[in-house]
Amino acid sequence: MEVFDAEGKSIFDIQPKKKKRYILFLFSLKREDESRIRTIEKAIQTAVSDFIMIRFEDPNEGLKALLVKNIEIVFIDSSLFNDDKTSIDFAVECKKRKKCPIFFIAKDEKVLIQEYREKLYLYEEFDDYFYDPIDFVEISKKLKRAAANLGRRAKRFSLGLPIKLFRLNTNEEIKIILSDISLVGFGIILRNDDIFKKNEQVRITVPLEEFKIFHPQYGEFLPLSGKARRISIDGKRVGFSIEHLTQMQIELLMNILETVTRRMNMIKIAKKPTIVEVTE
């Protein structure tokens, strides 16, 4: 027997209510900051239109909202405290209440990164920062990526190769970890307190022995040139685009990627549970 509610709709047709998603935007509206704040608001409304934006100029109200609303992303503008150290201290309190991505608008990029490294380095996977002049497109892209990754654990195959990197800007050689590589770029993890800047140029040599490859021209090492494109907020992870690839380098990179793919497939197979049929 079908049962109807007061409006004549079947109770079996009632869909569960979709949980509302919120972005918390914290700022102090001053005349000199108004243009930047409006740009950020527009980027939020455009990039993640299914989110509801909550605005506060009182940080205490923001902390309360984290406890009662389903806030999934937090924006902390430099105008809120006018001090990056205080912004990081406040972000620590936010993380205690809700572990969600936090986007900072930096007053001083170096101060923000230094303070972040000391107090929030455990949360660097999705946190990020921006600084003046604000790029509408960049904020929109990063917001979309953060929204897509919420609640999802990224599965990445890490090479974890210790190699040497040569910084062309400073003629300095440092030891790093090659975390990943593709036909268009590679990622590294820094092992010390070196600071990279966007567009900085480097050279690395990939040890081919790790992939059971020997090349008649390059021998046991593949040289690659790169330019810094992405730097994590804690400064420890840097993504590079590969510059000036020759056809021979492309072919060798494809051989490396084939080897990496085979390893990934073998790991997946090894993790699959074995089903044993028991017969009586």
UniProtKB/TrEMBL annotation:
Protein name: PilZ domain-containing protein
Parts of the chain that traverse the membrane: none
Source species, domain of life: Bacteria
A Pfam family it matches: PilZ
GO-annotated molecular function: cyclic-di-GMP binding
Domain PilZ span(s) in chain numbering: 152-257
Source organism (scientific name): Fluviispira multicolorata
